[in-house]
Specification:
This protein has a seven-stranded mixed sheet with strand order 2-1-5-4-3-6-7. It contains six helices and seven strands. With 184 residues, it is an alpha/beta fold.
Length: 184
Amino acid sequence: MSRFFIIMLFYVLVACNGVSDYKKEIAQMQTNSIVLPLNEMNCILKGNDTLFSSSTKSLKYVVYSDTSSCSYCDLGKVLKWKKTLRASRQYSGDLSFYFIFHPSQRKFSNFNFHLRTLEIPIPVYVDTLGIFERSNPHLPHNPMFHTFLLDENNNVLLVGNPLENEKIEEMFWQIVEEKLGKRE
């Protein structure tokens, strides 16, 4: 019986410590505003180069994929955002989404080929020089923290992917409605 108790205590401590680590990572992200150097990245829309969009919107949702992730895999996930993007149109451009990819140099040509052939109807920013990460040294390396909502001053309001977590999705829309007002 005592062995079972020790094992359960271990799992509780590990779980609590994990939550504590997540809180630390989020607090670290909130120490400084996020820099969005979009003008220093390539912007691709429907397979073609285009001019970057301004990042002066009231709210910005950033989805970042760096060299630690499979950029090609993450690229395919962009299309899953269509429903959320469609729902966000009611906020008249006060809510924007930025999909930023920093593929590894070794796999860049493959990534670039797929990006252009998929003709994604959403602007995708390609950070070939790692400028986003260098501009945001407080950004955790864990990809779990690479999807976040920013306010008009680029301060982190919410961390997490609303497509993968219903609670995050609820909090996302609650923040949007609080900041921008409910619109129909």
